[in-house]
Each structure stands twice: as structure tokens, then as C-alpha cells.
Design a protein that fits this description.
It is built from 7 helices and 10 strands. The protein is α/β, with parallel strands linked by helices and 246 residues long. The longest helix has 30 residues.
Length: 246
């Protein structure tokens, strides 16, 4: 089985629970660390799929972060080659840009533990339906940019602050603004690394609020993340032992 390619953009923004799932399922993954100088390939040909993680940059900061332009080209190559793509936060924004949507700064930062609302399509979707349970729809947010639904994409979830929280394009491309992959260690690192960015978040004592809320919501999100990973990788054909129905 070919490896999945995963692209990361910050030392503190790894694959989290996705890495745990891939390891347990013995699905090989090659991880690129763009923040450490790893080069983005020109083609997806040698890989079975693509995962693009989050990061603090805007998709249009290509002068400062030239790898972002190459990532959009790689995403477009993956779509044309019918390879699965999963984008999270910045990754979802890069997919949206690759599909022609404009990514822009939102009116307010969406930070911490907040609910998402699945659309009818989302509740029927073979992957994102993992978050349809009433206990599973409070997820972790850490972004200030947003985008309209790309043309020919399907809206799967929204939130009170940001209408495009999750979408699919065809059967193989998924973009999620929220962070289902988060772990306790990642939360702890983010509130330290992004301390200045948090100052304008619409929360009182945001770092303390986020860390305390994590104790309440993280166990359920970890369960939902595992279900989503199983559903997603099964749906796009990357589970080693494909399940007929989940």
C-alpha cells in the first residue's frame, strides 16, 4: 500500500489523533514539515492520498510562505488524479482556494470549544456523520479566516459564527475548519505558542477557559475523532481492511 502524504505547517500542529489512528490501522504515512524546510512535491503520484493540516498563516501569504502556492498545486493535482484529500483548518482553506473560493479574515476569531451544526447532507454523509450525535457536535476551533462554499462543493456543517465549517467536493475531498485531531498536549502547547493571538479572542481569560473546557469536551471529541477517521478512511478506500458498511 502506498503511503499517505501529510503536510504540517507548525511544530505544535501535528496529526494528533489522526496519527494514532493511522498507526493502529497500520496505514503508512509520510509527514512533511514545511516549517522545517521540507519541500512539497510536484505530484501526488507516489502517494495514496493527502492530508493537509493547520497553521497560523493565511493562504495568500505566498511571498512569506512560498510552499503554500505549491500546496495548492498539489491539491489540484490530487483532485485531478482522484486521490483522497483531507484538509483541516488551514488545510481546508487551501482546498477552498484550490477550488476557486476566496479565503478572507472573518469578523471574529472562533476559538475554543463550540458546537457545529450538521446540514442534512452532513447527517447523511458517510464520514462527517460521526459528529451528528448531540454529544459529538462540540468541537475545537482555532481560526480567524473563513471562505464561502466552493462551487460544486457540498456544505456538511456550519457554526453560529462561521457558515462553512465542513464541506466535501465529490466523493474524495473533505475540508474541515475545526480541529477534531486535537489532544491535551496540543491544546497546552497552542495556548502558549499563540498567546498573543489569543488576546483578541472573544473569551474571558481565554487560555484558562480553553484548558478547563478541554477537560470536559476532549474525551468525547477523541471518541468522535476515532469514528470519523474510521468512516473517512473507509469511505475513500484507504482502510487496509475495507468495511462494507459502518
Amino acid at each position: 500500500m502506498k503511503s499517505i502524504l501529510a503536510i504540517t505547517h507548525a511544530a505544535q500542529e501535528g496529526l494528533g489523533t489522526i496519527a494514532h489512528f493511522l498507526r493502529n490501522e497500520e496505514i503508512p504515512v509520510d509527514i512533511l514539515y514545511t516549517h522545517a524546510g521540507d519541500k512539497v512535491p510536484l505530484s501526488i503520484e507516489k502517494y495514496s492520498g493527502l492530508i493537509v493540516m493547520g497553521g497560523g498563516m493565511n493562504v495568500d501569504e505566498t511571498d512569506k510562505f512560498p510552499f503554500l502556492k505549491q500546496e495548492c498545486l498539489l491539491i489540484q493535482n490530487a483532485i485531478a488524479s482522484k486521490r483522497p484529500v483531507l484538509g483541516i483548518c488551514l488545510g481546508a482553506q487551501l482546498i477552498a482556494k484550490s477550488l476557486g473560493a476566496k479565503v478572507y479574515q472573518g469578523n471574529v476569531k472562533e476559538v475554543g470549544w463550540l458546537p457545529i451544526h450538521l446540514t442534512d447532507d452532513g447527517r447523511r454523509d458517510p464520514a462527517i456523520s460521526a459528529f451528528s450525535d448531540a454529544l459529538a457536535n462540540t468541537v475545537f476551533h482555532w481560526h480567524g479566516d473563513t471562505f464561502p462554499l466552493p462551487e460544486k462543493a457540498t456544505l456538511l456543517a456550519s457554526s453560529d459564527l462561521y457558515p462553512t465549517q465542513a464541506f466535501s467536493y465529490g466523493n474524495l475531498i473533505y475540508g474541515l475548519q475545526f480541529h477534531f485531531e486535537i489532544t491535551q498536549d496540543m491544546v497546552n502547547k497552542w495556548v502558549i505558542a499563540d498567546k498573543e493571538w489569543l488576546k483578541n479572542a472573544p473569551l474571558q481569560n481565554p487560555a484558562n477557559t480553553i484548558i478547563e473546557s478541554t477537560k470536559t469536551y476532549l474525551p468525547q471529541l477523541e471518541r468522535s475523532a476515532h469514528i470519523f477517521c474510521r468512516k473517512f478512511f473507509n469511505h475513500v478506500g484507504l482502510l487496509k481492511n475495507k468495511i462494507a458498511q459502518i
